[in-house]
Amino acid sequence: MYQKLILASGSPRRRALLSRLGINFQYVTSSISEDFNENNDYTEEVIRLATMKAYDVARIYDEAFIIGADTIVICENKVLGKPITYEKAFEMLKFLSGKTHEVITGVAVINKNKKFIKQFYDKTEVTFKNLSDELIKWYIENDEPYDKAGAYGIQGMGCLLVEKINGSYENVVGLPVSKLFEVFKEIGISPYRGL
Ligand SMILES: Cc1cn([C@H]2C[C@H](O)[C@@H](COP(=O)(O)OP(=O)(O)OP(=O)(O)O)O2)c(=O)[nH]c1=O
Known about the structure:
By secondary structure, the chain is an alpha/beta fold. The chain has helices spanning about 10-20, 40-60, 85-95, 135-140, 170-175, 175-185, and strands spanning about 5, 25, 65-75, 80, 100-110, 115-130, 160-165. The protein has one domain (about 5-185): Maf protein. The structure holds thymidine-5'-triphosphate. Thymidine-5'-triphosphate (TTP) binds near residues 10, 14 and 73. The site of thymidine-5'-triphosphate has 25 residues, from helix 1, strand 3 and helix 5.
């Protein structure tokens, strides 16, 4: 049976990741303001925001399965969001230099009419090299850290900052597609026959 699928995201990276699964989907950007509450449990908070994004889009598309996601970077118990200024980006990358941090993506798949809701998160450890001030400046000037949590994108020039990762690469980019695929199987969405 055909199931309408919508990615509730304005992120081109999430779109590209979902496209890799070879399934049909639309995307609609949610208008949720990301007010991350650092006093709550971090995993609960990314799931809460992912769920809000999905429900925002479900107000119009109540018959569809909708995916919402939210990604944060945590280092030494500090949450790093998206930097707004050059100085903030520099500060974040300097802080991450030579350390291991966690990237957590919360995901919610919902269908309002069917009263379906599935929420999960994935966590990946990323270890940065020791970054010189020159490298950080070069990176900020040449790439776009501004719309990315933690001020870097592993999928672009940001790969040069990374020594190693432990866990899902796609989760760092913004959507843990391998875990998401398990939910798709449950709701009958699959690029393969017989699954
Ligand atoms: C750590 C890291 C984050 N990011 C991105 C993923 C997310 O798009 C962004 C975190 O912000 P999010 O608030 O999770 O997502 P978004 O605002 O870009 O998109 P939407 O809410 O519409 O879905 O940081 C990378 O692209 N690469 C990386 O290596």
